[in-house]
Amino acid sequence: MTPIRTPSSGTTTLEPAPAPAVASARPAVEFRSVVKRYGAFTAVHELTFSIEAGTLVTLLGPSGCGKTTTLRMIAGLEQASSGTILIGGENVTARSAAERDVSMVFQSYALFPHMTILDNVAYGLTVGGMAKRAALEAARDKLALVGLAGLEGRLPSELSGGQQQRVAVARAIVLEPRVLLFDEPLSNLDAKMRRQVREDIRQLQQSLKLTVVYVTHDQEEALAVSDRIIVMAGGRIAQDGTPRDLYQRPASRFIADFIGDANIVPALLEGRDGALGRVRVGMATGMAALALPHRDLADGPVDLAVRPNAIRLALSQDPSDGLPGRVQFAAYLGDHMEYEVAVALGGREVMLFARTPDVDAPLSVGDAVSVGFAPRGVTIVPP
Ligand SMILES: Nc1ncnc2c1ncn2[C@@H]1O[C@H](COP(=O)(O)OP(=O)(O)OP(=O)(O)O)[C@@H](O)[C@H]1O
Where is each ABC transporter domain found (predicted)? Predict the structure, then answer.
């Protein structure tokens, strides 16, 4: 019998253990038109997605978009108002948290303060009926796996935040759940530890082929750890794709701006050749047309998402060199410069945010510049 323990649901005994969270043909998690209402308020609208076993999928979005509610519905800590939730192909919609064979790692770690970390990790196994000795052995193995060999006898208070987070991960994986859930696991760590722990989580997930659903509001973290990202906004999916899809082919202005910074620049799509469209920026200038995927949009005004590092700045007032602009702000950041440059576009002044590697010959506030775009890092965004 396999126990599953979520700090808010207590410890319960489950059905005989199915296979651990390794890859299989069926989706590990499937949502079919799942809705969550709180009274008259709909927090999650008709959500449909599936998560392949052995992958790490992130639910990403701004505060209040419904990602935690979605994660908690996978865990069984919230019940869906309607729709169907499947885990490993089984309909678990009506099952409690204890009956779903999932494990959740919480922001707060939720370790037992009076127990050694070895006992913390072994706890769920012994409660589930495993002999103490075997449970301690399995716990020791998992602690070694997360890099904590030698510290088994310590209390949680004798560990750093990053180490406590690893204990929480060991405690979750020792149960060999079908799906491992992470709720903003790095939010209590400082910037340096965040990077380290996120790399550890990703490596562990890949080496054990774990199925992980991961919630964060931090787009960089999502890009760094995920096989796939489901971006949510207002309780709906705004885009579902690989990190590369989201960055290179954002489905909307919202995604372009949320995944990496983007300048939204008005432009004109004026013809096409195969998949590429001819795009003109700043009609009154000599800037050459860009050849960009037209994404099946009609000719006419379009928005471009221009990444800050795709902006090229040169000291020049010649309009044939690019769009005329003026530096409004400059900051030195060690390995790159950041600028804000005002350009006149589409009859209004647009402020562009640029990042350039040239720290040795920086531009100054007030400099007249010509602004060009490197095609890599520029994409047409659907309205
Ligand atoms: N128990 C509840 N009762 C009423 N409304 C709730 C409840 N739980 C969540 N909500 C609402 O549902 C919406 C989605 O909440 P959720 O916690 O899923 O968002 P989130 O994207 O995880 O945000 P955050 O990053 O701030 O945690 C929010 O508007 C929230 O106020």
Answer: 29-259
